[in-house]
Amino acid sequence: MQLSRFGEKFTAKSGILELMDDLGKAMAGSEKKYMLGGGNPAHIPEMNAVWRRRMDEILANGDEFERMVANYDTPQGKASFVVALAALFRAEFGWDVGPENIAITNGSQTGFFLLLNLLAGESAVGRRKIVFPLLPEYIGYADQGLDSRDFVALKPRIEQIDTHTHKYHIAFDTLDKLLATDPAIGAICVSRPTNPSGNVLTDAELARLDATARAAGIPLIVDNAYGTPFPDIIFSDVTPIFNDNTVVSMSLSKIGLPGTRTGIIVAPEPIARAVSAANAIVSLANGSIGQVMVEPLLRSGELLRLSRDVVRPFYLERSIRAQDVVRTSFGDDIPYSLHRCEGSLFLWLWFKELPITTKQLYERLKDQNVIVVPGEYFFFGTDESWEHRDRCIRLNYAHDPADVGRGIEIIAHEVRKVYSSDGSGDT
Ligand SMILES: Cc1ncc(COP(=O)(O)O)c(C=O)c1O
């Protein structure tokens, strides 16, 4: 079989594919595993009860079930769902959006594949690229470009808040220099809150990115998968933005419906239309189930109330608990630093001057039945070597607190062994 360039690019053994295979193998077997690795949201009992109630309502409501499963949706999304979303964004944030600004996709991952490739690659004015101005950044973007030259990413400035806490900031001087010297940059993209670090760009940083993008005549894409108004897994008090130069991506996944694959792109009309047009070619239509389940909750305000009163407090509590275990298990003798957890499902740990890479640490932890994600995968789009990329791990703090706690204790034990040895293994 002779694969096309597309075939070669999308079947190449990407780091993440390898890791997922490895995780799958690690999961097999009968021993207890501490799964701090994936990005699955928690099963929140109150939310699962709402989904069950909505299914009961749909089944009891005349032929609503048959209309949901036996009809093709339109490529833009279910018209009444899109109208309800636009009304919510107008009421909640005062955004100037109508249905024409919204495109639904089968998950925001698919939305990003379309969006990033609509804006990057060969064009009538030459090659276009996307810049990710703040590494580490979401692993799921890394291999989405049709050409590996499509993405550029920049190292952050690190603010050390105290001995064991840091926060990443955009190095605006580097970004400004890149934009001034590389006319091929076609869009700026950030996740806010950020997967993997739990960072939330400040309002001042977002305003500056907005101004920078506008001055360069390119759109700013903000991935709001964890942000407000739903799922609202965001612990710092910041304001989302949307204007005629911004694309905001949202999702029903982290509110508890990842299985329905419902992504939402809010964008200037030409971009929203382009995403829907590409979606028609790639997907024909979107899955309807998430849209039908959630639409009345958008209209009644229940989804916002649940996000604020159930989802956000649930994750905040779990995040604080996990951070407490980190502090007590790591103590003061290990030179670790936790990224300030301002949102998302993750804790991001940096082990300064660890004698081994975190990929090697990942292997050692796997032998102890603890699964984490080594940080290197989140540093794509640059060839610059940087020790930091091999000294961080991502933990999902959202699952059973006893398991998360035990997993962190095992990590602390293993890391302490590594620091007290030369890194070669035995202590
Ligand atoms: C930052 C971010 N964006 C997008 C996605 C994709 O989510 P989905 O395709 O489920 O909407 C994820 C999933 O983990 C994510 O963390």
In short:
The protein has 427 residues and is of the alpha/beta class. 42% of the residues lie in helices and 16% in strands.
Outline the structure in words.
The chain has helices at 5-11, 15-27, 45-60, 64-70, 79-93, 108-119, 172-181, 203-216, 269-283, 289-300, 302-330, 358-367, 401-420, and strands spanning 34-35, 102-105, 121-123, 126-132, 151-153, 157-162, 165-169, 185-191, 220-223, 246-251, 263-266, 336-339, 346-351, 370-371, 373-374, 392-396. By secondary structure, the protein is of the alpha/beta class. Helix 5 packs parallel to helix 10 and helix 11 packs parallel to helix 13. The protein has 2 domains: 5-46 and 306-418, Alpha-Beta Complex (Aspartate Aminotransferase, domain 1); 72-299, Aspartate Aminotransferase, domain 2, CATH 3.40.640.10. Helices cover 42% and strands 16% of the residues. The strands form 3 sheets. Strands 2, 3, 4, 5, 8, 9, 10 and 11 form an 8-stranded mixed beta sheet that branches. Strands 6-7-12-13-16-15 form a 6-stranded mixed beta sheet. The protein has a two-stranded parallel sheet with strand order 1-14. The longest helix is centred in the last third of the chain and has 29 residues, at 302-330. It binds pyridoxal-5'-phosphate.
